[in-house]
Amino acid sequence: MGLVVQKYGGSSVADAEGIKRVAKRVVDAKKNGNQVVVVVSAMGDTTDELIDLAEQVSPMPAGREFDMLLTAGERISMALLAMAIKNLGHEAQSFTGSQAGVITDSVHNKARIIDVTPGRIRTSIDEGNIAIVAGFQGVSQEGKNITTLGRGGSDTTAVALAAALEAEVCEIYTDVDGVFTADPRVVKKARKIDWISFEDMLELAASGSKVLLHRCVEYARRYNIPIHVRSSFSGLRGTWVSNEPQGDQQVEHAIISGVAHDVSEAKITVVGVPDKPGEAAAIFRTIADAEVNIDMVVQNVSAASTGLTDISFTLPKAEGRKAIDALERAKGTIGFDSLRYDDQIAKISLVGAGMKTNPGVTAGFFEALSDAGVNIELISTSEIRISVVTRADDVNEAVRAVHTAFGLDSDSDEAVVYGGTGR
Question: What percent of the chain has pLDDT over 70?
Answer without folding.
Answer: 96
